[in-house]
Design goal:
alpha/beta, Rossmann fold, 2 domains, 3-stranded parallel sheet, 6 helices, 5 strands
């Protein structure tokens, strides 16, 4: 589901910072991880501002790159400057507008389904194939990501 603009605090913070250069810290609450704080200006960092491990990861990216949950597009912009082909996707129409205004060449608002369902699918599949314990735990995130990407590819073909 795409986020409606009036129910998109992160997209609103990204848009506000992009347009005014001012924003405070976002507080993120989730049942899936601990509370977190994100200074909005860090979402607008350049490649030079990123930690070296992040710079190396971007430099190592090959082929067609999909930036999922791209936010303000800082990674997509850095990858573009490196001459790489990147598609940036987000469920926030506000974020996609900002990415387009900032120069991300292929930024799309994509309706992603609830990834918790993919995790349940992955656990069920791994159980059916006899994969348990440590091997199952190590494989579930990879399999979940593959399910999400395959769903995206299948929807793009329609």
């Amino acid at each position: 589901m795409l986020l409606p603009k009036d129910k998109d605090p992160m997209g609103a913070a990204i848009a506000d910072y992009h347009r005014t250069g001012r924003a405070s810290t976002l507080r993120v609450f989730s049942s899936q991880f601990d509370e977190d704080e994100i200074p909005v200006d860090t979402l607008f960092r350049t490649l030079a501002d990123m930690p070296s491990i992040e710079q190396r990861a971007l430099a190592m990216a090959r082929g067609k790159i999909l930036d999922v949950g791209a936010g303000s597009g800082c990674h997509a912009l850095a990858l573009q400057k490196m001459g790489k082909e990147v598609t940036a996707i987000d469920i926030s129409e506000l974020s996609v507008e900002v990415m387009q205004e900032r120069g991300v060449e292929d930024a799309r608002a994509i309706d992603l389904y609830d990834e918790r369902m993919t995790t349940m699918q992955a656990y069920r599949f791994l159980g059916e194939t006899g994969t348990f314990g440590k091997r199952r735990k190590e494989a579930v995130d990879t399999l979940s990501a593959e399910i999400i990407l395959q769903n995206y590819i299948d929807r793009e073909k329609k």
